[in-house]
Fold Transmembrane 9 superfamily member.
Amino acid sequence: MPATYCEIDLDKEKRDAFVYAIKNHYWYQMYIDDLPIWGIVGEADENGEDYYLWTYKKLEIGFNGNRIVDVNLTSEGKVKLVPNTKIQMSYSVKWKKSDVKFEDRFDKYLDPSFFQHRIHWFSIFNSFMMVIFLVGLVSMILMRTLRKDYARYSKEEEMDDMDRDLGDEYGWKQVHGDVFRPSSHPLIFSSLIGSGCQIFAVSLIVIIVAMIEDLYTERGSMLSTAIFVYAATSPVNGYFGGSLYARQGGRRWIKQMFIGAFLIPAMVCGTAFFINFIAIYYHASRAIPFGTMVAVCCICFFVILPLNLVGTILGRNLSGQPNFPCRVNAVPRPIPEKKWFMEPAVIVCLGGILPFGSIFIEMYFIFTSFWAYKIYYVYGFMMLVLVILCIVTVCVTIVCTYFLLNAEDYRWQWTSFLSAASTAIYVYMYSFYYYFFKTKMYGLFQTSFYFGYMAVFSTALGIMCGNIAHWTPLYFI
């Protein structure tokens, strides 16, 4: 027998709210033992004049032993929405035995036809072809050009001082006394590099855990794992950020440690809390409880900060001494004029195109799983894309750095970082396309929710790519 769980006094305001939801095809999502079920609010008649609400929820729950393995929802009881009436909402539950194993109960929610579509495989293959082409191109260009440069420089070393002074000197060897000069704003730069190292470590570990453990089978397990791994890898941030800051001659290491420790948490928590206030205003179920906010703040102050301090002290003591192969000149060398396409601003704008091109198909699948309620489970693909992104970023930044130094411009640190970090701008631009053409979101809450979290995702991706783009040219130089 159906059981009544609530009664609605349908005044005009409530009727208008239901009509609005039915007109816009609203549906709801519920969970029973972490298994999602979906239902539609109601439907309109053929003329669009009368609107009906589904009032009876028929739940069919399959069990195997003492575990729930299957849930189905059927909506019945169509009632016309008439103002100033009472509507009873009821439900019933039917239990049935099922042969589905508990570990296989999520299989029906996965969408192999979508995630393992030929386009997905083709995009991975296409990206691999791009990697092979780029690696070959970089190897060929650098081997040929560097061989020519070495031949030219060795010829110059055989000249006497008079011929060398009269000779036409140009190229990367002229900036050997400035190439290891500390970057401008070393405090911010080292904090970004440390955060990038941590984001890369978190991404790698979480993807590996997701490949092994099937994290999609429990609600919130992916987020919990990411928070735990982020907190545990805080020494990575402190070590690389603190050692880089020390090598660049920085003295305010405590300030650098605080900025490095709270850069990403402040960005994520600030965005989440801002969206949360909007969610509370709209009485949305997405609102984060106050206790969760306090818990996240406690993790930042009592876990992330102390571990970051440990990493910073280790980094300063173990690898904080400069060990550059060239001495840095006391007076900076003037930077000569160069072609417009050799300017750092142009290199920064163009540097993110190829890394974005290698991942943008995967971005579509990730966005769809996050914003369109599909369960993402092909983490092997994600690991391949991460590897491809790293290789493409390495190749692009080596070429960009070579051209910049060959133009006798030694400001490579920020240029290489920003050239790869500009991938974030292209990802964020793609999110605009996805919002307007692939989703049906509207209103202040949905818009702020989407663009707020996409900004966090894009920024974190940019910092990670910029970190990769810093270490590669450093070893190359």
